[in-house]
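Notebook p. 47: complex prediction with glycine.
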Amino acid sequence: MHRDVVPQYDSRMTSIYAQRRARLAAQLGAGGIAIVPTAPERPRNRDSDFPYRHDSYFYYLTGFTEPGAWLVLSAEGEATLLCQPKDVEREIWDGYRLGPEAAVATLGVQAAHSSADLDIRLPRLLENRSQVWFPFATHGGLAARVEGWLNQVRARVRYGALCPAQQGDLCLLLDEMRLVKDEHELAILRRAGSISAGAHVRAMQASSSMLRAGEDVREYHLEAELLHEFRQHGSEFAAYTSIVAAGANACVLHYRAGNAPIRDGELVLIDAACELDGYASDITRTFPADGRFSGPQRALYDLVLASQKAAIAATRAGARFNDPHDAAVAVLAQGMLDVGLLDKNQHGNAQDVIDRRAYFQFYMHRTGHWMGMDVHDCGSYVEPTEVGQVSERKDPLSGEIIKNRPSRILHPGMVLTVEPGIYVRPAPGVPEQFHNIGIRIEDDAIVTADGCELMTRGVPVEADEIEALMRG
Ligand code: GLY
Ligand code: MN
Ligand code: MN
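Predicted complex, structure tokens below:
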């Protein structure tokens, strides 16, 4: 990786990261200590790495974006950073390093050392602590590494050293903290959402104007428009691999932008958004390639939009995470019967469609997920105060017995997506006019006391508005 520009560390941010560390330290228990590595650099192929992306937990606590760094935090609030040492020769090749000498003042940690000394420093830092916390799930091999350091402490027990007797999953603590976003985070998320919305506008306009000009338009042309807009506004990456799906490709949920031609009369589904300053956004729009919905496309589009409106209306503090999904499914179930996707004679009424999960043929994913630094952000989907309330139900399609726990109660500052869809693969009994139509509409919402704030409405969502934009 190459970093030729000296990064700017905003001194106003130092206190925000310090406050987060203090909140975490208070949860480590007497004598506890936490170890938080950043992400490793990952080779792509010979001499070439994937673009470097820091670890989200580590960044949340430090704001530090260099690879090769570790944070160790004690329950007393002492933060020790281990980072790459200054190295003139390496910096010529790879770019600027902050170095431990500057890290204390710049990042507001209490101590900093070279990460070259990690295996010497860590056993010392772990000695005489009661419990060690580290992320269990996100860093392969970390548990073995911690075990190695603990073994070094154990080798010293005859000299009076105490070895931590307990290990805890640090993700459990940090996931809860990250689930509710602070004002600083919300401001970045809003900016990311606004840039991504602009990128969707640009892709819609490019699609219709290129088709009008008689050009050969491919999915990758529209992806190029999106990426241009992200970078143009200072976003470092796409938050996830962009989906640009022409026509039937929209029915492949994890499709990515390929080279399929975009044709008059077909829909284009774009699920793409940028990451900005370490925070994601996540937008899907579906639009007619040439700017005019056909009758069947419009019928299904309006149905998905109605289901999204119902889900948005159900997104507010005090509601449950599942409520938007249930609201969307209720609208979709009724609509699938009304437009004839599901046969009333075969499937009964909307409640029957829900009870038997018949809608699943055309809507097979959930209506949202947490979003934050990671596009599928961390945080339990079960209400922590009710984990003991287990109920069982038999799944109508698989016959499997499923254990349910009450879903999470929403609080102001939680951020989630609202993204219903309909995907119609050709099948016996499915009206031909709907075959190969895939539609999803996705926006990002901040939960507020009495509703939610949509951060991604800089791109139109009403069918008429999309048509007007694309004509313009
Ligand atoms: N773009 C990923 C998702 O919508 O969940
Ligand atoms: Mn998405
Ligand atoms: Mn999403």
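Notes: The first strand starts at residue 32 and ends at 37. The pocket of manganese (II) ion (ligand 3) is lined by residues 282, 369, 417, 419, 442 (CB under 6 Å).
Next step: compare against the earlier run before touching the bench.
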